[in-house]
Structures are given as structure tokens and as C-alpha cells.
What does this fold into?
Amino acid sequence: MSRFTLLLLLHAFLLVQLPGLAQDKTTTTYEQTWLAYFNQTRFSNNWGLWADFHLRTKDDFVEGLSTGIIRLGLTYYVQDQVKATFGYAYVNHFPADNHKNISQPEHRPWQQLQWHGGSKRLKTMQYLRLEERFRRKILNDDELAEGYNFNFRIRYNYMIQGAIGNRPFKKGSFSWVLNDELHINFGDQIVYNYFDQNRLFAGFHYFVTEQAYLQFGYMNVFQQTAEGNKYRNIHALRLFFFHNLDLRKKKR
It folds into this structure.
């Protein structure tokens, strides 16, 4: 059984079993749009830069804003297909239920190991990411409090991508994409929601060039909140642009 099949089974298990662990549970459904730009630039055989920027709506696909993220990192290439990244992200949580009139900032150092595989017509990508989340405390609807809440979060992401047509992964071609990412919380301040969320995505890539492609499709996000008995079920339209640059001098 493949890892991706196992992840799909785990996703189904979480959707069915986890809500039943909490009494008087409530699930709120949202419809959102997730926009993002990703850049990985390689400067030398061993070093590169990671950058990604996100903006997400709150509900009804176009109503309000929920989250904005700026994420940067320094990448070390262990091999061409294996790389380690260390970075920092600034997250802005726009006004929400427990801070209706103010945004909540979050500082998020992160470390990641990413590896690629596949063949001529099939590609895979996996990463394991550790995050340290410092979220500003909330005093009331209108004020931030002093200090930060803190927890660790680990994320495992598996993507499989298959070529469509007879020009695999070339300019002007399409590919199909399946992706699952599981988030797990841990730390002293985590009591009820060790399971944070699962993101299951299905969609397509369109290759603008061989180094740049547009990803679009549907994503389901199932998330447990800190209270333990409250859940979010998000139906999201996802539109991401990926841009990979290699600035190494070509051998003649």
C-alpha cells in the first residue's frame, strides 16, 4: 500500500472518528479562496532561497480576509532531490470570533526536510515541517494582551502529480495533482487539539514554462479548534503560482 493511500485512509478516519471523541461538538462550514505565490531560487550547488506569500478569504469565497502569510527560508541542498530549509514566517490572523475588531499577529520559525521522486510521467514530493508558533494573546475584542501563546506543530505533506498528454511537464502542458497534508500540535499549552487539521487537495497544474506553473483546484480543510469540541470544515478554491529559478552558471 502506497504512502498516499495510507494518508487518504487516515484522512477518512479523522473525518469520521475525531469528531466523535468530543461531546456536544459543533462543526462550522466555510467557503474560502486561498491564493499564494511560491518561489524557490537556487544560487549554488548547495544553497538557495525559499519564499511564499498567502492570502485567504474568510467565507462565501470572496467575503472578508482570514489569513495573510509571509514566509522566508534559507535552503541547503543535500542532493538535487533532497533539501533542508530553515526559516521564519509572519502570519496575520485578520479579525475573528475572539478578536472581532483587531488582527492577531503570529511569529513562526520553521524547519523543513523536503524530497522529490518519480519518473518521466509521474512526480512525487514530500516534506516534513516543524513549526514553533508564537501567537499574540488576546485581551478582548478590541485589544491584544501582553505575551504569546506557544506550541509546536509538525506537518507532513505528500503530493503525487501525473502528466496529461504526450509532452510531460513541458511548457503549455497540464498535469493532475493529488495532495494531502496532516498537521499535528504538541506542547505544554495543547490540551484538547493534538490533531490540528488535515488538508486534502485535488486539482491541476498548467505549465506556463518548465520552471513556472499554475496550480488550481479544490481543497477540503478539516480542523479542530483549541476548545476541542469545535470543528471547522472548509471548502476552498485554491489558486497557487509556483516559480522555480536556478541561477547557477551553466556548464559549457
